[in-house]
Design brief:
Elements: H1 2-21, E1 41-47, E2 50-55, E3 59-61, E4 64-67, E5 73-76, E6 81-87, H2 89-105, H3 110-123, E7 132-137, E8 142-146, E9 151-153, E10 158-162, H4 165-176, H5 183-197, E11 206-211
Antiparallel strand pairs: 1-2, 1-10, 2-11, 3-4, 5-6, 6-7, 7-8, 8-9
């Protein structure tokens, strides 16, 4: 009797703990609460005369690798826009096609097209259940799009989304300070680091790029204060 009670308590506590550590295994794309991890990595780097967008190739169903070389990046609007998505494959492709239609309505106006697409994504009864995150970029601007209506213009020359996005963006920001590294170099190394740390990201990378016409300034966060500690005096 006591053993059965302890087993039930342990199973319940383990399940609750794992919901915080692995929320994507417990929440689906339609749930309104909790963080949903998008199982992929998309990274965009804008530096010098080039803007580069890279993705890994791993497609997962639960804990199973369904495909190692999926294509998650592509050109849009007569090769003037690059786009990558993290999330459900069918949803990402649907949203990419929707964005392309908006770009046909508003040619050479990526920000306007993205806002109009986000309105539909947020308000349309069918589209609001599409589960994906997107990074889109042209020669002048980089945007992050989500299903809750956000159209976020990047404040940093390095942007990333997905389950390995934080690893890739952190690595990219650190590497950006080195003048001899190009946008290609930074994107390659950032994705390589993300794939080493994220189990949902592999090393089968795909890359698309455009010429950069925007003025890019190095991201400057708040500088940390360092206090030198001295050994204790006896």
């Amino acid at each position: 009797m006591q053993r059965n009670f302890l087993n039930r308590v342990l199973k319940r506590s383990t399940r609750n703990f794992s919901q915080h550590i692995y929320p994507d295994l417990h929440a689906n794309g339609l749930s309104s609460g909790g963080l949903i991890v998008r199982s992929t990595t998309i990274c965009c780097v804008r530096k010098g005369d080039k803007v580069v967008l890279m993705s890994d190739g791993q497609a997962t169903i639960g804990s199973v690798v369904a495909k190692p070389n999926a294509n998650k990046v592509r050109f849009l609007s007569n090769n003037s826009v690059i786009c990558g998505f993290a999330g459900a494959a069918a949803d990402g492709i649907t949203l990419t096609e929707l964005l392309e239609k908006k770009l046909e309505e508003y040619p050479a106006q990526l920000l306007r097209a993205a806002v109009e697409m986000a309105k539909l994504w947020r308000t349309e009864k069918i589209l609001r259940h599409l589960n994906a995150l997107m990074i889109v970029a042209d020669s002048e601007v980089t945007l992050t799009l989500s299903g809750s209506g956000e159209v976020i213009e990047s404040h940093s020359p390095v942007t990333a989304v997905g389950s390995g996005g934080n690893f890739a963006e952190a690595a990219g920001r650190a590497l950006y300070e080195f003048d001899h590294l190009t946008a290609d170099d930074i994107a390659n190394r950032s994705m390589d680091i993300a794939s080493d740390m994220c189990v949902y990201t592999n090393k089968c990378f795909r890359r698309v790029s455009l010429p950069n016409k925007a003025e890019v300034s190095t991201f400057e966060g708040e500088k940390g204060k360092i206090i030198e500690m001295e050994p204790a005096k006896h």
